[in-house]
Amino acid sequence: MQTRTLGTSGPQTSALGLGCMGMSALYGDADRTESLATVHAALDAGITLLDTGDFYGMGHNELLINEALRTAPAAREKALISVKFGALRTVEGGFSGYDGRPAAVKNFAAYSLQRLGTDHIDIYRIARVDPDVPIEETVGAIAELVEAGHVRHIGLSEVGAETLRRAAAVAPISDLQIEYSLLSRGIEDAILPTARQLGIGITAYGVLSRGLISGHFGRDRQLAANDFRGMSPRFQGDNLTRNLDLVDALRAIADAKGITVAQTAIAWVLSRGEDIVPLIGARRRDRLTEALGALDTTVDATDLTAIERAIPAGAAAGDRYPASQMTHLDSEN
Ligand SMILES: NC(=O)c1ccc[n+]([C@@H]2O[C@H](COP(=O)([O-])OP(=O)(O)OC[C@H]3O[C@@H](n4cnc5c(N)ncnc54)[C@H](OP(=O)(O)O)[C@@H]3O)[C@@H](O)[C@H]2O)c1
After folding, report:
1. Which of 314, 332, 288 is nearest to 1 (CA)?
2. How close is the Cα of 282 to the center of ligand 1, in Å?
3. Domains of the chain by start residue, with CATH
4. Atom 36 in ligand 1: which residue has the minimum CA distance?
């Protein structure tokens, strides 16, 4: 497994991370046995970075990771657990805001450590900035958890350049977790250069645009009521048609290279720099195997030109989140 180092202060990690969200929430129902087998297969393949959130299935995802790590030899020692916190949930399963107050941060951490069955979280980050709490206070609270040995590294999620600077002035930041793909290139103008200037790595999510540019998303796919993609503008009506037209153009390049569409999309993100680690949302072993194949794929300058001609920057039809959720993105403001 190829490795990367997250920023100048972060840990060494596998070149791909496994995002575990879809094993508990947001993409319809998942198969628990297959989810566990996928985490084990990832660890066997040398993937060390496992990403979760305490709100993914309201604790379900952390308990799943706990079980996966308990049932594989020496797994906890090998794995880096990256946890997001801060999202508030309702009994009905909705989202009701964010809490980044220092006392709340420590409370979230106490519960996560218990659910994960571990004495430390490797990377800890608030999922979205709490608009009522200065980022300095939230990051300061995580820094105290680092000092106490409960957390190893501090990360950020979906923040803009100014917040990156403010947070980095409080404590070393290992990585910014943010959406980055052929369809979501918003970080390129200001956020990525600022992260590089500050020595902060990127853990990129949505590299396959939540499956939209994986090559496996059919035009007539019916989404379950509990699938986030049913509310995502990029998966609606005309937008979906236009986005899948882009995928067809990408498929022509993938076919000519003898690789898959998903591998092409992942390889493109990998080509953006050694400081970027794609988090792959595989929840089945066959999807994981396909994603890992991207590491054996070389895309040269001619391929990159062709890929960017197929999906030019800004080509995506529709926003990456529904309007109500776009307002929570510090990275978009
Ligand atoms: N910080 C944040 O705000 C934030 C937001 C979202 C996610 N994340 C993290 O990032 C991780 C990855 O995000 P994501 O799941 O949206 O990204 P993704 O990798 O773009 O999408 C995963 C989806 O793509 C489909 N897919 C098709 N082929 C695949 C392949 N070969 N490998 C992997 N997936 C394939 C999966 O299909 P199936 O339907 O077949 O399973 C799944 O529905 C999450 O698990 C989570 O840990 C963070």
Report:
1. 288
2. 6
3. 3-332 (3.20.20.100)
4. 211
